[in-house]
Amino acid sequence: MVALHLADEERIKTRLLQQGQVLLAIDGMQPDVGHEVLWIIRDCLSGEVLLARTRLRSTRGDLATLLGEVKEAVPVPIRGVISDGQQTIRQAVERCLPEVPHQLCHFHYLDEAAEPIFEADRHAKTELKKLVRGVRPIERSLEGREDEQSEAMRSYCLAVRSALTDDGRPPLCASGLKLHARLTQIADSLARVREKRGDFPRA
Known about the structure:
Mean pLDDT: 84
Helix content: 55-70%
Oligomer: single chain
């Protein structure tokens, strides 16, 4: 599919000419250790994939050759390069595009900056989980009961289980804070029920 997409050179060139410049992103994907690496170079402005090649080696020279192919093929200036900061990529950019700015991609910046926060959040979530370990005994005590109060208690147990397993996607989602917020909502709801009915057991 990528080969067919890249074969339409005229369409890609027309689109690049309209925007007047390109910002290249280069990255490699290796499904298994020891196998070929698929290197992708795309334009961040248009989203177009400009080159896709597999390579057994990923040396500075190999990557410089790939960048050189793109440099020759694009009809507009290359204004910048974005990558994960791998040393061979840096060296290849310096060799092939010495005048072009090269920066670490935003995701990698965010990932590294968020690492201490992520670790603190993960620890907080572990501590919160210790406070709600008694869900299973409550569920066992409700087996065979079909009254309204039992159904409500089962719903609360399910809400707690759901909160415990909803991890989100770090580093953009702080799962510890999310768990704290959901458990707080559950606790507030239980407090309102106890205030209203008085006979609702504490969970």
